[in-house]
Each structure stands twice: as C-alpha cells, then as structure tokens.
Amino acid sequence: MFAKPQSEHQWLTQLDGIWSFDHNCDGPDGEKTQSSGTMKCRMLGGLWVICESSGGEKAVAGKPKTANGRRS
C-alpha cells in the first residue's frame, strides 16, 4: 500500500546536498538588492526532497530572502 520510488524520484537525488546561492534582483521601483546564502537539501523516504535555506539581503531592508541556487 505504500508508494515506491519511481525513476522521477531518482532524478530528485541530484538535489541532495549543500548548495550556495548568489542572487541579484532589480525591483519594479528600480531598487537593486543582493542576496546570498546556503540551501541544504535532503531526501525523505526516497520520495520527497526537503530544502531549507538561510541567508538574506545584503543591500536593503534586512528581510531574509530565500532562493534556489547552484551546487557549491
């Protein structure tokens, strides 16, 4: 009765690991922001991937941001 991992789930394993990201954004009001941080991804039960990120804006407002990144 429990789901078994399929080939699509195997594809998710490439996301497993620690990633870093650098992100530049131009807002609609012309304001520029920069963010960087780390994303930790892990597999759960061979069916799901859980990603948790930390980091935040460098340039403006001090509100934490999250983003996808590249493998470090």
Question: What is the gist of this entry?
Answer:
It contains 1 helix and 4 strands; from the N terminus they run αββββ. It has one helix spanning 7-12; strands at residues 17-26, 32-44, 48-57, 70-71.
What would you note in describing this structure?
This protein has about 70 residues and is mainly beta. The protein is about 10% helix and about 50% strand. The chain is built from one helix and four strands, in the order αββββ. It has one helix spanning about 5-10, and strands at about 15-25, 30-45, 50-55, 70. It has a four-stranded antiparallel β-sheet with strand order 3-2-1-4, with no helix packed on it. The longest helix has 6 residues, at about 5-10. The protein is elongated, with a radius of gyration of 16 Å. The relative contact order is 0.27.
SSE inventory with pairings:
Layout: H1 7-12, E1 17-26, E2 32-44, E3 48-57, E4 70-71
Antiparallel strand pairs: 1-2, 1-4, 2-3
